[in-house]
Amino acid sequence: MSTPISKSCSKAMRANTILDATLSTSNASAAAIWRIRDCSLQLARTFPYAARIALDVSIAIDRMDQYVKTIVARIKEIDPGAFTIVFGHAGDGNLHVELHHEHTPDRRQELERLAYQITSEFGGSISAEHGIGIVNRPYLKMSRTCEEIETMRTLKRALDPNNILNPGRIFTM
């Protein structure tokens, strides 16, 4: 059965936009695909570096290819031994970026800042599906304007006047 998704996938493969794809045709095949995806942590344990920075970013679909090429190249410029793995939900713009590197605290901060800077350069968001939270809070201004952040604060005050829902997670009130 031909679906809009399968037609789009076939077109993208003919144009070499994507090299390979798998579409689920049943609940069983969907479960098998999720099992493979969920094994990424076990895969990461086989890599030479235990240090891993996991990012959850959002990039316009038509800019993803160049984004991935850029982040891989610029991470290598800083640390030739580091490597980048990108996977995720390409169809909706959400990418999981894993930066594997030799463990040093200053290197981690440098690589993380660079990755978020590249995301900003591509007009992306520093958080796709997992939210901002305390970890991403210092980088929020890289993907949101001061006006957008103030709008977020205004909504927070309106919907949570007593500041009891996750206080301090994204910004202080």
Model description:
- The chain is α+β, with helices and mostly antiparallel strands and 173 residues long.
- Helix content is 45%, strand content 13%.
- A three-stranded antiparallel β-sheet has the order 1-3-2, covered by helices on one side.
- A hairpin with a 4-residue loop joins β2 and β3.
- It is globular and about 50 Å long.
- The model has no long low-confidence stretch (mean pLDDT 86).
Query: Could you give a short account of the major beta sheet?
Result: 3 strands, antiparallel
* Share of helical residues: 40-55%
- The low-confidence parts are none
User: Gap between N and C termini, in Å?
Assistant: 53 Å
The count of DSSP E runs of length 2 or more, i.e. the number of strands, is 3
Order of helices and strands: HHHEHEEHHH
Count of individual helical segments: 7
Rg computed from alpha carbons, rounded to a whole number of angstroms: 19 Å
Mean pLDDT: 86
Beta-sheet strand percentage? 5-15%
Shape: globular
Strand order of the largest sheet: 1-3-2
The computed structural class is: alpha+beta
